[in-house]
Design a protein that fits this description.
single chain; alpha+beta; 5-stranded mixed beta sheet; two-stranded antiparallel ribbon; elongated
Length: about 500
């Protein structure tokens, strides 16, 4: 049986016995461990009137509130035991946050729901009825109040950003579909579109100002998995399909659904002290200003936009083609091979590491491009410029597809890990590898891991000089034929339409 302490309370001349439970709410194991590792914390616990670190005495003043002071003031341990040591009786079912606010006579604030302007930042005046004296408990209460406000602000901002993104997406995804013009019957499950939109959280974690906060939320997910289920829903809306030529309506439905889940995630965090601590115990939310998440609405749309681009390209018979251990710009400019013009790569890479129809990943020394399996003569350069200027990144489109293929996946997924959230298969395009083997000079070795396209390396080009060997290759080809340096034979290259590709012959 849970132990209780008995107190006598005299109300209107009537003596009443009130029982309060003495059992404390336990923080997660990692939180409990962290409360005993600092010598500063031990000093605070050692005396009845512990010294308060000077940098933490005035959180509304010059030094302001800080993650360091959350630790130094031992707020985690204070909040772990707060319900049994300083709490007041609350109505059954009252969320922890609301109970804490009511205990400080701030019950008019609503910090457990997504409601604009209902949870203003705390001020010293919020505690004036307690004859504020900068005592340790006053400072701890202030830090708890500020974290309640910070968590609410973060989720309120994320909720607004998803709403903004949903509005913006009705324009951007429509523009993508209009540009790529996939077959009319192209569609996608609403659940996949929802997952792609929820990848917004993983993109927020890439922003330096927001990374500590997203990491703190991920820590909370380890303690309360239901938070992750709300933020990264799976297995929902499965039976509903969106036609891509009417996808604007689907995006609106999906963004509203995700906003409802964000509201549920905030409620779960604010409901009990242990879950709230799982999110806040690192001190990351003890920051004077939460960065504006709605300002990142364009950035967080990249997950959804990458998914739409990938699906439309696949429907139109495009695949990703890569050249291993190849720097396409270096090949164009090092006066060795290939000695023909690679369109758009005479100058250096741009700030996205692209030139013409190619992206070079410096980390892996791989060159990527797009090629069309039904019409290899198509030039993807213009579309790629549009993609990377407005909607996605080369890393998301190309490296994301490589990662997806390596894991054997096809549908998008978002998975919270120990410290971060990772999105998979936002791009699920097929990835093929150009064959660079010097001995493979025939019509059957275009790729090492994909079927050869019809007409590849067949002799015959318009305007081919007598005595030359002119062979068909895709527009963005980076295979072995380009590396030929045979002194006996001369090669020219043409596309499927028979037109000779620009540049010099390979001697």
């Amino acid at each position: 049986m849970q132990p209780f302490q008995l107190f006598l309370v005299i109300l209107c001349g009537v003596t009443t016995i009130v029982a309060f439970p003495t059992t404390a709410i336990h923080a997660p194991p990692d939180v409990q461990k962290s409360t005993s590792t600092s010598s500063s914390l031990q000093e605070l616990e050692a005396t009845s009137s512990p010294p308060i670190p000077s940098q933490c005495t005035d959180p509304a003043g010059f030094n302001s509130i800080s993650p360091e002071c959350w630790i130094l003031l031992n707020v985690t341990q204070y909040l772990t035991h707060w319900p049994s040591t300083h709490g007041k009786t609350c109505h059954p079912g009252t969320p922890f946050v609301q109970c804490f606010l009511e205990a400080l006579d701030l019950g008019e604030k609503n910090c457990a729901d997504i409601t604009f302007a209902s949870c203003p930042p705390p001020a010293w005046s919020d505690l004036k009825n307690r004859q504020f004296t900068s005592s340790l408990q006053d400072l701890q209460d202030y830090y708890v109040l500020f974290n309640i406000y910070s968590v609410w602000t973060f989720f309120n901002g994320y909720w607004a950003a998803i709403g903004n993104a949903g509005s913006l997406a009705t324009t951007s995804v429509g523009a993508i579909v209009a540009l790529l013009d996939p077959p009319k019957k192209t569609n996608g499950l609403l659940s996949n579109i929802l997952t792609a939109l929820s990848a917004a959280f993983s993109l927020l974690s890439l922003l330096p100002d927001l990374a500590p906060l997203t990491k703190a939320v991920v820590a909370g997910i380890q303690h309360a998995p239901s938070i992750g289920e709300d933020l990264f829903p799976t297995g929902t809306l499965d039976s509903r399909v969106a036609q891509f030529d009417q996808i604007e309506n689907a995006v609106g439905t999906v963004s509203e659904y995700l906003q409802g889940n964000i509201t549920s995630a905030l409620a779960a965090i604010q409901k009990d002290a242990a879950t709230f601590l799982a999110v806040t115990h690192s001190g990351s939310f003890s920051t004077p200003a939460i960065p504006s998440i709605p300002d990142q609405s364009h950035a967080i749309l990249q997950g959804l936009e990458t998914y739409i681009i990938s699906q439309c390209l696949t429907a139109n018979d495009w695949v990703i083609a890569r050249a291993i251990d190849t720097d396409i710009h270096a090949l164009q400019t090092n006066n060795t091979q290939p000695n023909w013009n690679i369109p758009g790569c005479s100058n250096d890479y741009d700030n996205k590491s692209t030139c013409g129809a190619y992206y070079y990943d410096t980390a892996t020394d791989v060159t990527y491009t797009l090629t069309n399996t039904k019409n290899p003569s198509l030039d993807p350069t213009s579309d790629m410029l549009q993609f990377f200027a407005n909607w996605t990144t080369p890393d998301l489109l190309f490296n994301g597809a490589v990662q997806c293929q390596a894991q054997g996946g096809s549908d998008p997924s978002v998975r919270p890990g120990a410290e971060s959230v990772i999105a998979f298969c936002l791009s699920s395009m097929k990835v093929c590898t150009w064959d660079l083997n010097p001995s493979h000079t025939d019509t059957s070795h275009e790729f090492t891991d994909c079927p050869t396209q019809k007409g590849f390396a067949v002799d015959g080009c318009k305007d081919c000089d007598d005595g030359d060997i002119c062979i068909n290759v895709p527009f963005s080809y980076v295979g072995n034929y380009l590396m030929m340096t045979s002194e006996e034979l001369t090669y020219q290259f043409c596309n499927k339409d028979g037109n000779v590709l620009g540049g010099d012959e390979v001697p």
